[in-house]
Write a structure and sequence with these properties.
The structure holds two protein chains of two kinds.
Chain A: H1 11-41, H2 43-49, H3 52-55, E1 59-60, E2 65-66, H4 69-100, H5 103-118, H6 121-138, H7 140-148, H8 163-187, H9 191-199, H10 204-213, H11 217-233, H12 236-241, H13 259-266, H14 273-313
Antiparallel strand pairs in A: 1-2
Chain B: H1 2-31, E1 34-40, H2 45-58, E2 62-67, H3 71-79, E3 85-88, H4 94-97, E4 104-118, E5 127-128, H5 130-137, H6 147-152, E6 164-168, H7 173-185, H8 187-192, E7 205-207, H9 209-219, E8 223-228, H10 229-234, E9 241-243, E10 249-250, H11 254-263, E11 286-294, H12 300-320, E12 327-328, H13 331-341
Parallel strand pairs in B: 1-2, 1-3, 5-9, 6-7, 6-8
Antiparallel strand pairs in B: 3-11, 4-8, 4-11, 4-12, 9-10
The chains are: A mainly alpha, B alpha/beta.
């Protein structure tokens, strides 16, 4: 005879649901609070400069004329350079670690990459000035100029500190996160996929390409987006090597400036109200740029996966 | 019944604990040191910490808490009355002073200098004058072998090389002194660029902090930029002698900074600038740093202690300046400042 059991209490489930919902709401609330606070802190500057703030290039604290365009440009370009360098490197590393590396080399390599993430930004920046910049100026930059000097991107005098150096240092900083997230994603690719491909007579490279990479494409793209998010906000190390000159120049050898850098550089010594408000507005713009870039990436991801599924169906 | 007894027992314990905490709390406040809070400039932070440390032996009943958040922050916090004193590398503007709820006094403490550091093959000794420096920073002189530079440095081999101008990218008192000097000696600079903790630079690369600028100069052949004197000395960087307002070439040193303060015109409110001071021994590119206090102190006890400290700093503290590579105020100015400190009411 089955014992009569009390119906299981639903209260626990409900409470758990509310709890997690609450946590999610806190995060969303936090984002709104940051946005609201930034908008409030910059309200007078927004009124004074209006849309001009986004479209003009003069940043003159003495005359109190502020335009954020070179900073927006610098943030986007340095992050793009960083992604172009870091993406193949870190996904390649992740593929090697999950698919090819012998066991004895795997763990030391993983620890090394994780150590890279632990280097403080300032240290990396100083290393950038004293080691990376002189090296870049003496070897890779002249080579780039010699072979690609005919494009507008590698012209003009080489100082070392430049938009390109800024992009490279960001690439170093986002390498570990893209690598470790990609590694987790590749590891989650079911072995069945690989075995099936092998069974069809695929070579190792073909297995990696068809069974692993294309299966994990969406996740890898997500890993890159995570890296991009960090790239947009990187401050200290970039500030040390980018040259901090608010200008828009095609040549990547020219110094540039990023949104995060100008805040870090000028906030502490800004004495007038309009100046402080303009720096707050820079913060707001950075916030907006980050959200916008992420949204665009999501959109890109969605269209990308849609076309790939249709192709698979065909 | 038993339950009740237990309850009263715990109750009693609670009361005892409460009493104990109260007693502790009271005795703690009775013997607590008075805390005087300040915030502001980073340039004088090393000497201020030294002063606060040394002053703890003079008057153990008072402790200082100084946050080196930058001159902008120092001015903001004293205006908002969230600190007992502020600190700034530049004097407050009329505009900012007009926002103050009461009269704010500027108390100069020590001074420093900017030097023109460079990186040339063999690092020869260089001499520069006001026009040349302004023209380099306006982007008008672009090459090291420009006629203006060679004329000042006969016999010095100057290469046919581009001058890579390096300036501070972060807002700083160092930049304030630098641009203040350039504005005084060049009308073009004054109208085009002006004086501030950060400006819209006509040319050059920005380095973050003294270490950033020094790093760029050391690493870039043909570079020229300004750094704090202390920083150049500690890093053994070569720096140029600069022609002063009296037409003499002067090497930056603690003595030549103090000499500039002795000959500069110093107004009654102490919101002075000592760049381009006359006098044979005055180094032209230097500036002081200030403490900012309200003339009418709100808290009588705190006000009294603060005034005592300020007097001590002017009399005894100044003697420590040179050891830490800061230039002390000249004796005449010290006397004037002491007189002003005596006018603080509490």
């Amino acid at each position: 005879m089955p014992a009569r059991m009390a119906p299981p209490s639903r209260f626990g489930d409900k409470a758990f649901e509310w709890l997690t919902l609450g946590m999610a709401l806190v995060v969303i609330l936090l984002v709104f609070l940051i946005g609201w606070q930034l908008a409030r802190g910059s309200s007078a500057a927004i009124q004074k400069f209006g849309f001009r703030f986004l479209t003009t290039s003069t940043w003159d604290p003495v005359a109190e004329q502020f335009g954020a365009l070179p900073f927006i440009y610098g943030t986007l370009v340095s992050s793009l350079i960083a992604l172009l360098i870091a993406m193949p490197l870190s996904i390649g590393t992740a593929v090697y670690l999950t698919e090819l590396a012998p066991r004895w080399i795997r763990q030391p390599l993983i620890s090394l990459i994780e150590m890279l993430a632990a280097i403080p930004s300032v240290i990396l920046g100083l290393w950038g000035i004293f080691v990376m910049i002189p090296w870049l100026r003496n070897y890779p930059f002249p080579l780039l100029k010699r072979f690609f000097g005919w494009t507008p991107f590698f012209t003009g005098p080489i100082y070392g500190t430049s938009m390109l150096a800024g992009g490279i240092i960001i690439a170093i900083m986002i390498l570990p996160i893209i690598t470790s997230v990609s590694r987790e994603i590749l590891r989650s690719v079911p072995n069945l996929q690989r075995e099936a491909a092998y069974a069809l007579g695929a070579t190792r490279w073909e297995v990696t390409r068809i069974a692993v990479l294309s299966y994990a494409k969406k996740g890898l793209f997500g890993a890159v987006i995570l890296g991009l998010g960090r790239a947009l906000g990187e401050t200290m190390a970039v500030t040390m090597v980018i040259g901090n000159t608010p200008q828009i120049a095609a040549s990547l050898f020219k110094p540039g400036y990023t949104l995060a850098s100008v805040i870090a550089n000028e906030f502490t010594e800004a004495t007038t109200d309009v100046y402080l408000q303009a720096l707050f507005e820079i913060g707001l713009v950075l916030f907006g740029v980050t959200i916008l870039v992420n949204l665009l990436a999501q959109l890109l991801l969605r269209t990308m996966t849609r076309t790939s599924t249709t192709r698979a169906v065909q | 019944m038993r339950q009740f007894r237990r309850m009263t027992k715990t109750h009693g314990l609670c009361l005892k604990l409460l009493g104990l905490t109260l007693a502790f709390g009271l005795s703690a406040t009775a013997s607590a040191q008075m805390m005087i809070n300040g915030a502001g400039a980073t340039f004088p932070y090393p000497i201020y910490s030294k002063w606060f440390d040394a002053y703890a032996q003079v008057d153990p009943s008072v402790r200082f808490n100084y946050q080196s958040i930058g001159s902008g922050g120092g001015q903001k916090q004293i205006l908002a009355q969230t600190v007992d004193f502020g600190a700034s590398d530049g004097p407050m503007s009329d505009d900012n002073l007009s926002k103050a709820p009461a009269k704010i006094l500027h108390i100069p403490t020590v001074a420093g200098a900017d030097v023109v550091a460079y990186n040339l093959p063999g690092n020869p000794a260089l001499k520069l004058d006001a026009d040349t420096i302004a023209a380099i920073f306006l982007g008008e002189i672009k090459e090291w072998n420009d006629g203006k530079i060679t004329a000042l440095n006969p016999g010095v081999p100057l290469p046919d090389q581009e001058i890579v101008v390096v300036h501070r990218s972060d807002g700083s008192g160092t930049t304030y002194i630098w641009t203040d000097y350039l504005s005084k000696i060049s009308s073009e600079w004054k109208t085009k660029v002006g004086t501030n903790t950060s400006v819209n630079w006509p040319t050059g690369i920005g380095g973050k902090g003294n270490e950033g600028v020094a790093g760029q100069i050391k690493q870039t052949p043909g570079a020229l930029g300004y750094v704090e004197l202390i920083y150049a000395i500690q890093n053994k960087m070569p720096y140029a002698d600069v022609k002063n307002a009296s037409g003499k070439f002067v090497k930056a040193s603690l003595d030549s900074i103090t000499a500039a303060m002795a000959t500069a015109q110093i107004p009654e409110d102490f919101r002075f600038s000592i760049t381009n001071a006359p006098g044979d021994n005055a180094y032209p590119i230097c500036g002081a740093t200030w403490l900012l206090v309200y003339e009418q102190q709100k808290d009588a006890m705190k006000g009294k202690k603060l005034v005592e400290f300020l007097k001590w700093a002017q009399k005894d503290g100044e003697k420590m300046a040179k050891d830490l590579d800061y230039a002390p105020l000249p004796a005449a100015l010290q006397a004037r400042v002491l007189k002003r400190i005596n006018e603080i009411k509490f």
